[in-house]
Amino acid sequence: MKFFLDTANLDEIKKAVAYGVIDGVTTNPSLIAKEGVPVDEQVRKICELVDGDISAEVVSTTSREMIQEGRRLAKIHKNIVVKAPLIPEGIVAVSALAKEGIRTNVTLCFSAAQALLAAKAGAYIISPFIGRIDDIGWPGIDLIKDILTIYKNYSYGTQVLAASIRGPLHVIEAAKAGAHITTLPLKVLDQLFHHPLTGTGLEQFLKDHRNAFELVSAY
Ligand code: E4P
């Protein structure tokens, strides 16, 4: 399973990259806005930090403008994946960009029917938002399972990216379902480390080591 980091913050990216487990980064207009830096400039910096797929989202709403914006974003760096929303204009843009060899990540996916459209248009990645589905009281993970079944039935090459991740359980459920990628806020990545038995176990190991060797060497 590929791990992407779900942020546009350079310090967060540097911290996560040091773990050696990050395969890419996803941004969206809200995450870019938080950094207060124009998207082109910020994703260029992100591409210097991570050698993997970096999603940069279009903010125009007509297919013609999305295609132009997608072409511009794709020129920033070879690793840029153009993110487009799952609306009819977005799917027109994804089809056109795919024909030009530009890789796309179709975002704001909330149904299997939408995911089928994205695959047929030639999307490189589909991003179902499982946390936002959970937020309205439906099981988001079921959408990941449905999309994976449909894509397998027809051998679509579109990768399924579990997005809108709220905690470690989402990551485990997405991995069990077979999602190709998940995108994690840094907080969730850090939460993946936590287990109380690891903490207490390490404490005891170090205590035993100190008692056996550091006290002896004191004599
Ligand atoms: C990533 O591609 C999505 O934009 C992101 O995961 C959305 O997360 P949110 O629902 O926490 O805003």
Brief descriptors of the model:
single chain, 219 residues, alpha/beta, 8-stranded parallel barrel, 11 helices, globular, binds erythose-4-phosphate
Bound molecules: erythose-4-phosphate
Largest sheet strand order = 1-2-3-4-5-6-7-8
Number of helices: 11
Ends distance: 52 Å
Helix content: 40-55%
Tell me the series of helices and strands, N- to C-terminal.
Answer: EHEHHEHEHEHEHHEHEHH
The average pLDDT score comes to 97
Q: What summary fits the major beta sheet?
A: 8 strands, parallel, barrel
Overall shape: globular
Structural class computed from helices and strand pairing: alpha/beta
The count of strands amounts to: 8
Strand content: 15-25%
Task: Describe this entry's structure for a reader.
The chain has about 220 residues and is α/β, with parallel strands linked by helices. About 55% of the residues lie in helices and about 15% in strands. It has an 8-stranded parallel beta barrel, surrounded by 6 helices. Helix 5 runs parallel beside helix 6, helix 6 crosses helix 8 and helix 8 packs parallel to helix 9. The N and C termini lie far apart (about 50 Å). It binds erythose-4-phosphate. The site of erythose-4-phosphate has 11 residues, from helix 7.
